[in-house]
Amino acid sequence: MAAESAPHTARELRQRTARREITERRRITQRLRQALLSGGFVLQYQPLVSLRTGYIRGAETIIRLQHSRRGLIAAAHFMPIAEHSEIINDVGGWMLQQACMQAASWPGDLSVALTLSQRHMQGGRLIRQLLESLSASGLPAQRLELELTEAMLIDDNDDTVFALRALQGLGVRLALNNFGTGYASLSALKRLPIATLRLDRSLIHNLDEGIADAAIVQAAVKAGHALGCAVLADGVENEAQLALLNEIGCDEGQGPYFSQPVAAAEIAAMLATSPREHLK
Question: pLDDT tens, 162-175?
């Protein structure tokens, strides 16, 4: 009898686990809806730095959720859930609006980068939200850099294809996230005028610990340059990594070595004091 009941027990455990996960997703989704209504989200910014000069050329937008006890909650704890719900369209639209508005006050031609969700791309509202955000803020389209995933480049969904073509026509800069870890072929990259290839931080983490890691990064940098792209190393942590990236010929970097993500007021003050502030 014990042997016969084991499958039923295992199935019941799976069902209970699935119900808990669904309940938790619903709870977090409701929390995100409340945050949109009550100003519960904040944006932080992490500088994007030229490795050759050490000067800031822009900043990436990072969303946080405010919690009364836990403080600012990282996107990794709620964005994956948002991306499985229609609410990602509202969260993504809010990010676009706020990032464009804040970046419009930055001096010169400094750019603001923003990661796009694949579901947001397919939702049919992205282009309208983008046009409204650029119009309301006055930010030139070429100062906005939208980060795509490799999956988007090979997605044949009609809404994704339409959105990618519309982005191309609007003149915003396009970047490819997590390059070197996915499955997009170099031929797929030719479909769009990608301005920046962002090397995945996993490639940079052990860069200064082995010849093989450096060889992989060097090959990725060469591929990016062959396509006419600037190559950015994400997750730069120390001087040794920076030296190797410079030797390899990587163009840009981002990570704690230069600066942790900072509040909107702090990045604005940094850029207003010296738009090309030297961070090396």
Answer: 888 899 899 999 99
Tell me how far apart the alpha carbons of residues 145 and 59 are, in angstroms, rounded to a whole number. 10
Q: How would you class 23 by CB atoms within 10 Å of its CB: exposed for 0-12, middle for 13-18, buried for 19 or more?
A: exposed
The alpha carbon torsion through 152, 166, 201, 252 (nearest 10 deg) reads 150
3-state class of 143 per DSSP? Answer: helix
CA atoms within 13 A on the CB side of 240: 8
Burial of 96 (0-12, 13-18, 19+ CB in 10 A): buried
Instruction: Dig out the tokens for 93 from the structure.
Output: 């639209």
Cβ pair 257, 236 in contact under 8 A: yes
**Residue whose structure tokens are 């992205």:** 126
Whole-angstrom distance, CA of residue 127 vs CA of residue 166: 7
What does the pLDDT look like over 210-237, one tens digit per residue?
A: 788 889 899 999 989 998 999 999 999 9
